[in-house]
Amino acid sequence: ESNKLSSLPIEIGRLSRLQLLDVGVNFLLPLPTEIPTLSSLQELYLGQNEISSLPTEIGGLSRLQRLGLSYNSLGYLPTEITNLSRLEVLDLSFAGLTSL
C-alpha cells in the first residue's frame, strides 16, 4: 500500500496461491492484466488509484470475497462482476460511478 506504483511486474501473474493483494494508494491506471489470472485470490484492494475501467476478465476471479475499488474513476462496472458469486464485500465509495 502507498508505494507510488504505476504498474505491477508481469511476474505477479505467476503467484497462483496468492490470496490477498493490496495495491491501494498508488498510481495504477488500468487494472494490471495479470490480476485476473490469480485464481486463488480472495481479497483484492485497489482503492485510491487512478483506475478508470475494469476488464471483463475480472469476472473470472471465482474465489474473490472482498473487492475494494474506492477512490478511483471507474464510471461503470462491467456486467461480468456479477459472476463473482463468492463476493461478500464490494467497496465502491467515491469510485466515480456514473451508472450501474
TrEMBL record:
SMART domains: LRR_TYP. InterPro entries: Leu-rich_rpt (IPR001611), Leu-rich_rpt_typical-subtyp (IPR003591), LRR_dom_sf (IPR032675), LRR_domain-containing (IPR050216). It comes from the Eukaryota. Keywords: Leucine-rich repeat, Repeat. The keyword Cytoplasm does not apply. One of its GO terms (cellular component) is cytoplasm. Gene3D superfamilies: Ribonuclease Inhibitor. The keyword Repeat applies. PANTHER family: PTHR48051, RAS SUPPRESSOR PROTEIN 1. This is Uncharacterized protein. It comes from Pseudo-nitzschia delicatissima.
